[in-house]
Amino acid sequence: MTIEALNFNLDYMYSNQSRSFTAVSPETATLPQGRLMMRAKNLNVFFGSGEFNLIQTEKAKFYISPGVGVARNGSRDLTLVTPLGAAVVPLVGGRAVTFNLGAGVKVYPHKRLGLRFDVRDHISQGGTGSLNPDLDLNISGNSLPNPAQYFGRIPVQNNLVFTVGLIFRLL
Fold first, then answer.
1. Burial code of 117-149, b = ≥16 C-beta within 10 A, e = fewer?
2. Residue 65: which H helix or E strand, with range?
3. pLDDT value at position 126?
4. Phi and psi for 159 in degrees, rounded to 5?
5. Distances (CA, A) of 82 to 28, 38, 73, 86
6. Tens digit of pLDDT at every position of the chain (171 positions)
7. DSSP 138-167
8. Are the C-beta atoms of residues 126 and 98 closer than 8 Å to each other?
């Protein structure tokens, strides 16, 4: 068993997951109390990570892998629902810096061919772009200005990912 130097990886992850945040909009002079919901319909993560091989045997390498990247929420919309009706407007996709920590094993049943088993947690800050739409949220001619103020601070998000990969070694 030996401890090896650092390897570096660049990765991309697409997830067709839906995530949402909900807030209460207070009663205004023109609108009754309602519910605001921001929905993002997919997630794209670009990240780089270092890979520290901890234990190496003839057929396997066990590693830990910290990294940093950028997450982008795409296809977002903001919905306002009140007793008077509902309104939906699109939002610009948001971005956030992510940090990740992974661990796994690479198994080499053949000299140039292997399998990779990895578990990784992507942690992104709450800042995912502006939650104020370019268009007004209008219900029956009444609008709600600056809806982002009702969400408060968007919480830190975790994305736990399990991957299995095929490895081709050139050297």
1. ebebebbbeeebbebebeeebebeebebeebbe
2. strand 60-82
3. 60
4. -130, 105
5. 11, 15, 26, 6
6. 454 557 888 888 888 777 777 888 888 878 888 888 888 888 888 999 999 989 989 899 999 999 999 888 777 888 888 888 888 888 877 788 889 999 999 999 998 899 999 999 988 876 556 666 777 777 777 777 777 777 766 667 788 889 999 988 887
7. EETTEEES-GGGGT-SPPPEEEEEEEEEEE
8. no
Task: Name the residue among 114, 79, 76, 119 with its Cα closest to residue 94.
Answer: 76
- The C-alpha angle with vertex 157 and arms to 116 and 46, in degrees rounded to 5, equals 50
* Spatial separation of the C-alpha atoms in residues 26 and 41, rounded to whole Å: 26
Alpha-carbon span 147 to 170, nearest angstrom? 54
CB atoms within 10 A of CB 34: 25
CA dihedral sign of residues 125, 128, 130, 131: negative
Q: What is residue 13's predicted lDDT score, i.e. its pLDDT?
A: 84
Q: How far is residue 136's CA from residue 144's CA, in Å, rounded to a whole number?
A: 7
pTM of the model: 0.71
Pairing mode of beta strands 19-25, 6-15 = unpaired
In the chain, the amino acid numbered 90 is P
Q: Which DSSP letter does residue 171 get?
A: -
